[in-house]
Design goal:
This protein is mainly alpha-helical. The protein has 19 helices and two strands. A two-stranded antiparallel ribbon has the order 1-2. This is SulP family inorganic anion transporter. It holds the Pfam family Sulfate_transp.
Amino acid sequence: MKPKILTTIRDYSWSQFGADTLAGVTVALVALPLSIAIAIASGAPPAAGLVTAIVAGFLISALGGSRVQIGGPTGAFIVVVYAIIHEHGFDGLLIASVMAGLILLLAGLLRAGRLIRHVPEAVIEGFTIGIAVVIAISQLKDLAGMTGPALPADFVPKFEALWAMRQSIDPASIAMGVGAVAAILILRRLAPRVPWLVLVVVLASVATALGFAPVETVSARYGALADTFPMPSLPKISADQLVALLPSALTIAFLAGIESLLSAIVADRMIGGAHRSNAELIAQGAANIASPLFGGLPATGAIARTATNANAGGRTPVAGMIHALFVLLVLLLAAPIAGALALPALAALLVVTAWTMSEPHRWPDRLRLPKADLALLLGTAAMTVLVDLTVAIAVGTMIGLALRLSRGEIVAPRWHTPFRWGGDNRED
């Protein structure tokens, strides 16, 4: 359970520090717009995403069991966080996140890191696809510049609310949003090593600032981002709240554990390393306890940011710590620039994120799965979209384990490596 930084720091050099610094700044440039976009899509203040990248990002690197893991807010949490805020308010989310952190901390201390790999891969793929669908639909309002009340948490009422707002579609916003999605998807295929996610959002925001695209920005809707770092605090907690929020906390803990260990596996295969799963869970626990104390969101290892870090030359946890410190500097010194990001472009970024999460290139393999496994995948996806993520995970896991036992499969199969990286700067 020893953090990787204690191992890597022994023979650390100035040349490695230079490589880690370059990688950390590169990842921070990707994390900045993405963290704001995830916070907005989750129904949280935009600054909450930046706080999460700073606090959780630093702790996950400093305490984690992976050399190159990058922590922060991720797209997988959007559905969960939005639902918690909708039902319990932002204070409820903070409490649930701390509870999830305690659960993860306990799991790491009990050496439960390897147990998560017993969750059937069809369930993991199913709820990931379901989350991707919900994220994409949730971004249609900002993508098209529609005006109206906040969208409901449930999927069908969300569709009904979007339909009711259809008369308010803004031509400039939808042109920017659709154009940004197309530009990112096309350009990253032509030049995969260029961070098009960042460049397209920046160019769209510059066009807005110069008056070429009259669309809404982050600061126009939410006010100017504070240029100070918040002091730690936590809302009052009652026993009734703890009971009501326990299912949400378990879901956050499960997602954080799954995504962080998947990300660590990806990192291992990219750099030829070996992560420490229990140290990783302890780091996730500490991060999810600390992040809400400063008003941040739930956090986990971010697969694409981790891969970006490895591709950029990061080889020790110092890169992730520098990434967090660079985001902090931007918050303190350049908050107005972050507030100038165009909302349709941020929505486009998350639509592309959802597309990437769904791993469309894997459908030929999925359709060749045994019928029971394919049904489990599709059923989990449908439950995630139409019912509830917690129900989808619980029911899907029970059915999946029963299928595995009926086949006599005692040893958990290896998870596949998510996404086709090969230097492709895709986000999660």
